[in-house]
Amino acid sequence: MKLTRRNFGKLLASMGATAFLTTYKSEVVRAFEDAKDKGVKLVWLQGQSDTACTVSLLQASDPDLYDAVEELKVQIAFHTTIMPDFGEKAIRVLEEIEPDVLVLEGSIPTGNMENACTVGEVNGKPVTIAQWVKELSARTRVAVVGFGSCASFGGIPSARDFEGRSPTNAVGLYQFFQSNPKPSVPVINIPGCPGHPDWLMTVLAATLLGVNIEVDGLGRPKLFFSQLIHDNCARRGFYDEGWFAESFAESDFSKKKCLFKVGCRGPVTYSACAETKWNGGVNVCMNAGAPCIGCMHPEFPDAVSPFYAEQRKLEIDATKTLFGSLTTAVLVGAAAYIGTHIYKENKENNLKKKKEGEKK
Ligand code: SF4
Ligand code: SF4
Fold first, then answer.
1. Residue 74 — pLDDT band, cuts 50, 70, 90?
2. What is the CA(355)–ligand 1 centre distance, in A?
3. In total, how many domains does the chain have?
4. Nearest CA owner, ligand 2 atom 8
5. Rounded to the nearest 10 degrees, how much is the dihedral formed by the CA atoms of 95, 195, 193, 14?
6. Less Cβ crowding at N or C end of the chain, within 10 Å?
7. pLDDT tens-digit readout, 122-136
8. In terms of Cα–Cα distance, which of 29, 64, 43, 56 is closest to 209?
9. How far apart are the CA of 229 and the centre of ligand 1, in A?
10. CATH number at residue 256
11. Dihedral angle over CA of 207, 208, 209, 212, nearest 10
């Protein structure tokens, strides 16, 4: 079926992420082409980040950022990593522009630490990223997008120190717009450390076409964040059989073991990673021998740490978290999985004992 503005959303929802991206990649490219006549303007702000989300985007399989900028003429009006302009000329763009889409990469320091991240100066005074997000989101015409876990929910800069606080009071768009005026356009969060480039391109194409992207309570596109990684993992059969890697020596896929005991967070993390995979659908963490560390979990990294420790050993105090009710929901899910896991382990031990008894 031909992809049109009308059926974009329906096809996206009915086909699922993988099939949609595989079937309609060239049409997603065309969505950007359609936008070129309208002179679509995109502003990409960087808060507290390591630029890995930009690097991730530059590696988008199709369409890639180079195509978008050079061939498809979506005007990236501001992006500190790739734009040629600098100094006053660059900052003037931020002062004057009415972006169609505002993308944030990195987290926003707040409160008495707001000055921890500033972008340029106006009238000789540094402007905080919090101030730019407030001003530009109010002027944005189509959508505000948080790309990556830092921009969505605070990510690594929001991790709590030994005193139980984030050193820069870092937040993502989700928390930022709880205490600041919400923009009139949708706010869409695409968490991940880094964010998935193909998912961002799909969301951008849809929003530029005027297609409504259905999001959950945290602003995440339901298309990519409705299912647990665990439910689509290629190692799920090993989990169901109770075949667990006890150490990383057994993590290679050929050993046919599930990575639960070496810390996999697939059972508590919602994302389409296992379906769409990464690097153009080539691979994903668990298949490559690395347990999922829950980088797309809304409370990454605190709620999923320490990494590489078995899940049932984790202690999470839901009352101290930013997403108390969500954590509780996730914990209930985790408890169910852990219960099943313990049941399987007991069942395995009983079978072993039974067999040993039979031999005697
Ligand atoms: S625990 Fe991890 S490795 Fe095992 S099946 Fe679930 S997602 Fe896959
Ligand atoms: S599988 Fe887990 S760790 Fe890997 S990218 Fe997805 S959410 Fe992040």
1. low
2. 28
3. 2
4. 295
5. 140
6. C
7. 999 999 999 999 999
8. 29
9. 8
10. 4.10.480.10
11. 10
